[in-house]
Each structure stands twice: as C-alpha cells, then as structure tokens.
Amino acid sequence: MANAASNSHETPGTPATPALPVPPWERTRRAKTPARTPLSQEAIVEAALHILETEGYDGLSMRRVASELGTGAASLYAHVANKDELMKLVIDRVFDSVEFPEPDPERWVEQVREMMRGTRRILQAHPGIARAMLGQVPFGPSGLRIVEGFMAILRAGELPDQVAAWAGDVVSLYVVASVFEDDIRFAPHGDTSREDMEAWAGQMKSYIKSLPVTTFPNLVALADPMFETGGPDGRFEFGLDLMLRGLASHSRRA
C-alpha cells in the first residue's frame, strides 16, 4: 500500500498531466458574461449621448440604449419614463456646464452674440443634439438656468417684455436649426464631405448662371454671392448679426 501511495504523487521531473477535454454535457453551459454596468439614470443618459454622437438621432432608441448597456429595454423604465424624457435629460446633461456673464447694459448685444456662439460650439461638439432639441422645451435644471440667464441679458438691454420673451425662443431656434443643417450635411456618420458640398455648390452656381437671364435676372445676377465661400461660419454670423440688429432696434437704450 505504501508503494501504491507513493506512486500516486507526481515526482520531480514527471511531465504535468495534460489538460482534459471538456465533457460533452458541460459544453452546453453558457459562458459567464461580464458583469453589467450598474443601471442608473446617469449611465443611461451617458449611453444615449454616446449613441447620438456616433450614430445620429435616428440611431437612438430605448432598445439601442439597452443594448449599449448590456440589458433589456424594460429595465430602463425604472430610471427613465420614455424616450422623450431621455432626450430632455440628455440635452440638460450637455448644457450643464454653461455659464452666463453678469448682464451688462452697455454690452448686452455682444453678450447675446457670445452666448449664441458658445451655444453653437456646444451643439457642434455633440452631433445629434441639435436635432433632439427641435420641439423640446428646455425645462430641466440646466435649461431653466440658461433661459433665465439669457432673459437677464435681454432685459438688461431694456427690451420690451414681449420682445424679450419671444427673442429667447427665436434666437435660440436659429442657432439650433443652423447646427442641425450642418449636422445633416457634415455629420461624421454621414457620407457627405465638405469637398462634396463644395462640388455641389459649384454645380449649383453653374446651373443658375446658365438659366435664361431674361426670365431669371435676379437669380443669375446673385449666383456668385449666393454661393460665396463663407462656409457655415460666415452664413451663421450673417444671420446672427441680422437678428441682433433687429433686436437692438427695439431697445429703449437705442
């Protein structure tokens, strides 16, 4: 028995026992899945923001967010009521770092201009958000703070209350719509490059110039400036200046 016992132990120099094949009855066991990211409203919002930026507005759905988080869509509803609420949370998340200057009655027009430029930069940094904002009322904590700050600047310019109230919506809509248009044209998930757009603009200009001048005298005359290479930035600044000049004309300080 002693000899048998000693033979059952591996002695120095003895090759290790080779790995054994997995028994067929164990092959059907599911492999262990990695631990899921703990679900929370913040995790859901971050996942939705990532999808918006990489796949665009049309790629976002509750099912897609759930897939991103490795869970089922039903589990999201314990934290977010529906896609509409998720959109509002995402928008509020994007704008939570916006800071407003102290309203200056002497510089209110420039302050509005700077804020609209800053809003545009934020939207450009988060593709898909401009589309999500259309039709949304910004009544989250960040949205309310932004609207309050914007109204404070407009009222510092001594605009009539009705003008200030409508201007906040109209000017903001202009910024959102301009970025949305750029997203459609130049979104990273799209197929249109700036070179493609420049080629298209050249074709359009050539076509307009070829129109019968007796029928379309104004179109032909404006073909060159219509497609002036100012790009999205130039067109945005022109539109913003146009709006701010109109606003300034209502100011009691004028």
TrEMBL record:
Which ranges carry the HTH tetR-type domain?
A: 38-98
Give UniProt keywords alphabetically. DNA-binding, Repressor, Transcription, Transcription regulation
What Pfam families does the annotation carry?
TetR_C_1, TetR_N
- Residues of the region (Disordered) are 1-37
- InterPro entries to which the protein is assigned, alphabetical: Homeodomain-like_sf, HTH-type_TetR-like_transc_reg, HTH_TetR, Repressor_TetR_C, Tet_transcr_reg_TetR, Tet_transcr_reg_TetR-rel_C_sf
Lineage top rank: taxon: Bacteria
Residue ranges forming the DNA-binding region read 61-80
Signal peptide positions (record): none
Composition bias (Polar residues) maps to 1-11
Name the UniProt record assigns to this protein: TetR family transcriptional regulator ActII
Q: What is the lineage of its organism?
A: Bacteria, Bacillati, Actinomycetota, Actinomycetes, Catenulisporales
